[in-house]
């Protein structure tokens, strides 16, 4: 089982290639959905990494896939240009779960 990256910029792709993760760079919603659909059919891929900007292009489709599909796992990753609020979201989940504001 392996990782695969779908990115909106070459920097993230090159960085992850250094650790052995292959991927592609796409810029349009149509191209993103096409690559995502084809990689979801690939049985050798366990985790698909997607940059925040691409997830923001079609959050409804990503949410539906995450709810309905067991494999592969789709994980949002921030890139160096992003101003993602992932850390704040995780803090919110933890605070809600334990009842203490972090």
Summarize the structure.
By secondary structure, this protein is α/β, with parallel strands linked by helices. It has a single domain, classed as 3-Layer(aba) Sandwich (Rossmann fold), CATH 3.40.50.
Report what the structure shows.
There is one protein chain. The chain has about 100 residues and is α/β, with parallel strands linked by helices. It has one domain (about 1-100): Rossmann fold (3-Layer(aba) Sandwich), CATH 3.40.50. About 50% of the residues lie in helices and about 20% in strands. The protein has 5 helices and 4 strands. It has helices at about 10-15, 30-40, 50-55, 60-70, 85-100; strands at about 1-5, 20-25, 45-50, 75. It has a 4-stranded parallel sheet, with helices on both faces. The longest helix has 13 residues, at about 85-100. It is globular, with a radius of gyration of 15 Å. The protein starts with a strand and ends with a helix. The mean pLDDT is about 85.
